[in-house]
Each structure stands twice: as structure tokens, then as C-alpha cells.
Amino acid sequence: MALLLxxxxxxxxxxxxxxDSETGRTLATADRPAELSSPRPGWAEEDPRxxxxxxxxxxxxxLRRAGxxxxxxxxxxxxxxxxxxxxxxxxxxxxxxxxxxNDARAVAEIEEFRRRFPEEEVLARTGSAVTQQSIGPKxxxxxxHEPEVMARARRVMGSYDFVVHRLTGVFSAERNWALxxxxxxxxxxxxxxxxxxxxxxxxxxxxxVRWPREVVxxxxxxxxxxxxLRAGTPVVAGSADHVASTFSAGVVEEGxxxxxxxxxxxxxxxxxxxxVDRRLFLDYHLVEGRWLPNGCMAASGSLIKWFVREFxxxxxxxxxxxxxxxxxxxxxxxxxxxxxxxxxxxxNDPQARGLFFGLTLSHRRGHLYRALLEGIGFGFLHHLAxxxxxxxxVRRVRVTNGGAxxxxxxxxxxxxxxxxxxxxxxHPGSCLGAAFVAGxxxxxxxxxxEIDRFLAFGEPVMxxxxxxxxxxxxxRIYRTLYERNADxxxxxxxxxxx
Length: 498
What we know:
This protein is of the alpha/beta class. The protein has 16 helices and 23 strands. It has a six-stranded mixed beta sheet, with helices on both faces. Strand 16 and strand 17 form a beta hairpin. Helix 11 runs antiparallel to helix 13. The termini are far apart.
């Protein structure tokens, strides 16, 4: 029995899983909450020290639940949010809260990057446009607004690279963090000097770029004392969370699509070639030679969580689902734009803002909640429209993450997209992908296809044709609402930043 540890550094929680590589059995899972902070409009930050503190408590608990010791763990893989920005000083200590991938503060700096570097050149070299997710504009923002912090910064890294460093003492940059940073030329496999220079960062502050399954180091004695793992346990470079969860959902063939109903709304499509479009991101698949053109909506599950907290009046998700299910498709004339943290793909507008449109005195809480779920679905449909423009045909659709536990959210998503969804049953998500990558790194698996024995599926969710047609009509209104109100959103966002 070869035990593999997978860790996921997520927006709302830190998760661990122990799996048996020989049987495909999950021995135990454990998680601890993480807190997202938004101290100003459009800002999104977390404390990396909380992630490590979570692991110090979570990993011993995980080992106890599995009835094993740290000495029995054969390898460790870490997945996490990407491209989170973390700064460390010369001692490896965190200098400030992380700037999250959905943070939208660097509006002016994004525009400067766009003026300085032609869009087609950036797309051709980095695979993605300059957006609120790009690391360069955020570094430029930090140089201007927190120069004392940047003066002390000696390392720039992402969420899972940070945890790998805490475990091993080794600085590395997993390949997808590099790619999504907008600082890396994926065609020539190197950092881009002129973009680094404009951002004000030296290459020696970035880690060596690694493939996900590369063993980058071993658990140090200090990390072993803090976590219960065995000193000397191999640790691989790891993976972006959405890439790891996509692979661990069995999305491995051309035409496979994953819809992630998580804190952010991810949609990922598997191809055997890089597909570049300014409205999409591009990632490496875990399987070498395959790619993941994809999109990410800044707020999805986090938007639902906000609504429940602020307007639920004590009602839980199940009660709100029941209220929304009693409302017909289209929410009786109510349409939501889910741009509550600005928006990443496909509009790439950090100054976009959320909007409930069509409110009347006849609308109740259930209408608002249904419109919220439908608006997120329209965001996914917008991405599908881009994929269709690129000539990419969907073969099958998998659905995962916390939202997949809601029958209503799955039903609305299937109806909006007009596609059958295959839910993963009790799917652990990114942490399973991270554990599998660790297994590939030490040779516990012979081929990536062995992920199949870890998968179980729920009942498929078939779309309703009449509901889909109604949603296609609403979708036209959804698209027009942003187009006609973008200028007003930007004006309000300008006042917020004044």
C-alpha cells in the first residue's frame, strides 16, 4: 500500500486527502476554513500564514482519521489557487496578505500594460490577455502603493508554491502559475525579460519553473515536527487547483468539458493543442501534450455565500433552493449580472459590477436567489459561446465542487447550457488531483489513465429543451445589459477608487 497525501489551498478552505494508490480508496479527508478578506471594493486577499497554520492542525488530524502515521505517506502533492501573488522576505517570511487571483485593484496598471505591450503579442507569447488576474500589473501596483514592502521582497510565488516551500525549503514555480502569471513565454519556455522589467521584478525572485509531477524537494525536519509527516518524504511541484480538479474529474480527452460550481466559476475544455483567445485563459493539462483553454468567473459560489449571509435572514441553502425552485425559469423577468468582484473571463473587466435587473414589487427572495443561480449559468454559457466560435465541440460535460450537491443549481446549469451534466459522486476535487500527481512523481502510477479507478458518478442531469429556449432568450438580455451599462459601471468604480 502506497499512501499519497494531496493538499488543496482553496479560497474558502484548506483541504487534505489520503489515498491508497493501489486500490483507489480514499482513507480520510479533513479540512479547515480559510478567510477571504476584501478591505476595499474589488480587493481580495488572504493570509498565507493561515494556510500553513491550517496544515499544522489538519495533517495530524488527517493521519489520525486514516489510522496511519506520517512515516507511511509515500509522497505529497499540493494544489492551490492560481495565480495568487505572495511576497516573502529574505528569511522566507510573508510580507503582506496574498493578492488573490480575483483581486481587481490594479485597474490603472492593467491599462498601462495594455498600452505598453500589443495585445496580439501578449496573447501569442503568454496564451492569455492582460487581465485582473495577471501578476505584472499587481506587482506594478505594489511598487507604487507599497514601495517599502517591495523593497523587502525577495521571492514572488503562488499559493501552492508557498506551501511546497514551507514543506521543503525549496523555491519553485509550478508551470501553470508561471503561465497564468502573464510573465512566461510558453512557446519558448522562459520568463519574458521586458515584461518583468516593466513590472519591476527580477527573474531571480521567481522560482525555477517545474512540471507538476517533478519532485522538487523533501519534507524538512522542521516541517515534519509541525505537520506529523516524515522528514525526507518527497514533495512534487503540484498543480493549479482548477487543473488538478479537472484531471481528477476524468477530463482527459479532446472535447471533455468541466463545469466547476465553486467559489469562483471555472469552465475548462480539454484539447490536444493550445487555443489562444483574449476572452479565455490557457493552462497546461496535467497530461503532457494536452491543454486546457478555460475561463474563470470571479464570483460564483462566493456570490451565493454573500447572498445567504446578507439576505438569507437565517435561511440555509436548502430552504433558499426550495424557494427558488418554486419560481419558473427566467425568474419572472429578473436577470442578474454576477460581476460582484469585477469580472475575469470572458469580459476581462475589473471595473464591471453586479446588477439585479427587472426588479418589481412582486419579486420575492426566491426570485432573487433563482436569478442569481441563472446569472452564474449565463456566465458559463458566455464561455461556451466563445468555445463555439473557436470551433470547439463539446463531447461530454462533468460537473463538480460544492454546488454540485445542489440539485437545483445543477438543474439550472444544465438547462441554461442545454447540455447533459455528469456529476462526480462525493468528488474530493483538487486534493485528489494533487495526490495523483504525487503518485506520478514517485512512480506509483504507470499512466495518467489510472485516475479512472478513483471516480464515481451520480445520476446525469438532462436539460429541459423548453427551459433552455427560454434561457437562450434571457441570455441575449444578459449580454446586452453589460454592453449598455459598462460605461456606467466604470464611472461608479472610478468614484470608489477616488
